[in-house]
Design brief:
This protein is α/β, with parallel strands linked by helices. It folds into 2 domains: 4-136, NAD(P)-binding Rossmann-like Domain (Rossmann fold), CATH 3.40.50; 140-292 and 326-345, Dihydrodipicolinate Reductase, domain 2, CATH 3.30.360. It is built from 11 helices and 15 strands. Strands 14-13-12-11-7-10-9-8-15 form a 9-stranded mixed beta sheet. A hairpin with a 2-residue loop joins strand 12 (266-271) and strand 13 (274-279). Helix 1 (13-23) crosses helix 10 (297-311) and helix 9 packs across helix 11 (321-340). It is globular and about 55 Å long. The mean pLDDT is 97. Residues 9-15, 34-37, 40, 48, 50, 71, 86-89, 91, 109-110, 136, 138, 176-177, 180, 193 line the site of nicotinamide-adenine-dinucleotide (NAD).
Length: 348
């Protein structure tokens, strides 16, 4: 069977998660890895931690895989078809640009970059490339979110009255390479790193909000970044759409990702009770969305991207580049709103 030959840059939480997923994909083969940390290049990932999931071993087997200390050598390796970029956000742009210009398919972890200038530079290169490009907005592919969004958009639940999305993490202070998440310049705080998923869900479910009003707090855990934010999205139609995100809670607090949509015909919830639809006529539905083979959005987005490369299909099932750029513009407006304490209109 033909396989997509993959090179992963960055062997932290996301890079090692991607590694495990590519390993169970019969259409994928990891042929190269790169990291600036020589310990990780030996397969020793004991220093890596993350918010969702567990792992069986602290040692990855890189037998037969080329390990590069220089990521540009991986990008220019003729055996690599697809570059999977899982480095800290502030270095996304340079590797994404190099990989696109080298004519590789590129899967780039979210958020797309640290600034709108970088986002636009990457977007331009992706549009000019004849290869495929996706961003790891994994919540778009997460089974419960994808099901609810698909059914909402067919009109099955009726008109939206109110919606809220939450993504709340225990503190990630001390959990990353050089503790980069705690540095605003490098990560953009919970506002960009974590809450971006729900910004993008708002865009994914409902289209383009006109304006945002955000309240946030800086420097609870990080140097000066927004560590907790609550945003109201104005669609100009009287609906109430809110999202809350933060990583300021104590280390022992469990991770929470949840949403609730109150619509004319049903209330759709993914919360402590699981994924349920409470119909106005009294029925309570528990949709069967679990997929034992591809249990998470990470599995689904990566399997899908690899299959698109092999089949020659533009990978637009979960995202278009324009939508992801929109989400970044919404994030920028939220950051301005937090600091100005005013409602900010979004310029698309
Ligand atoms: N989609 C998701 O749900 C999700 C979850 C967590 C993180 N992320 C994103 O994934 C990316 C990586 O985050 P992480 O949690 O894996 O971070 P991490 O700190 O766990 O790992 C980062 C890795 O990159 C390496 N690295 C740092 N600078 C490098 C450079 N210049 N060149 C090559 N390697 C370098 C580090 O040695 C480390 O191995 C970030 O953009 C983050 O926002 C996405």
């Amino acid at each position: 069977m033909k396989k997509v030959r993959i090179g992963i840059i960055g062997l932290g939480f996301m890079g090692t998660t991607h590694f495990g997923i590519h390993q169970i994909n019969p259409q994928a083969e990891v042929v190269a890895v790169a990291d600036i940390d020589p310990v990780k290049l030996t397969g020793d990932i004991s220093a890596v931690s993350g918010n969702i999931g567990t792992r069986d071993s602290n040692q990855l087997d890189f037998t037969g895989i080329t390990a590069y200390s220089d990521p540009y050598k991986l990008i220019n390796d003729p055996n690599v078809d697809m570059v999977d970029i899982c480095v800290p956000t502030f270095v996304h742009c340079k590797y994404a640009m190099a990989a696109l210009l080298a004519g590789k398919h590129v899967f780039l972890e979210k958020p797309m970059a640290r600034s709108i200038a970088e986002v636009e530079e990457i977007a331009e290169a992706a549009r000019n490339s004849d290869k495929y490009f996706n961003i790891g907005m994994c919540v778009r592919a997460w089974p419960e979110y994808y099901d609810a969004r698909t059914r909402f958009q067919t009109g099955e639940f009726g008109k939206l009255k109110s919606a809220n999305f939450r993504r709340l993490s225990q503190s990630v202070d001390g959990g990353s390479w050089e503790n980069w998440f705690m540095n605003d310049e490098r990560a953009g705080g919970a506002l960009l790193d974590l809450h971006m998923h729900d910004i993008d869900q708002v865009r994914f479910f409902f289209g383009r909000p006109q304006a945002v009003t955000s309240f946030g707090v800086r420097g609870v855990r990080s140097d000066r970044a927004v560590d907790h934010v609550v945003t109201n999205y104005d669609f100009g139609d009287g609906t109430l759409v809110i999202a809350e995100g933060g990583w300021a809670a104590a280390k022992t607090v469990p991770f929470e990702m949840s949403f609730q949509l109150i619509c004319e015909k049903a209330t759709v919830r993914f919360m402590s009770e699981g994924y349920k639809i409470y119909w106005e006529d009294g029925r309570v539905e528990t949709p069967e969305v679990a997929d034992a083979k591809l249990p998470t959005g990470w599995h689904k987005e990566l399997f899908y991207f690899v299959s698109c490369i092999l089949d020659g299909v533009k990978p637009e099932k979960y995202q278009t580049l324009g939508e992801i750029v929109d989400s970044f513009k919404i994030y920028e407006a939220e950051a301005r709103s937090v600091d100005s304490k005013e409602t900010v209109k979004i310029n698309y």
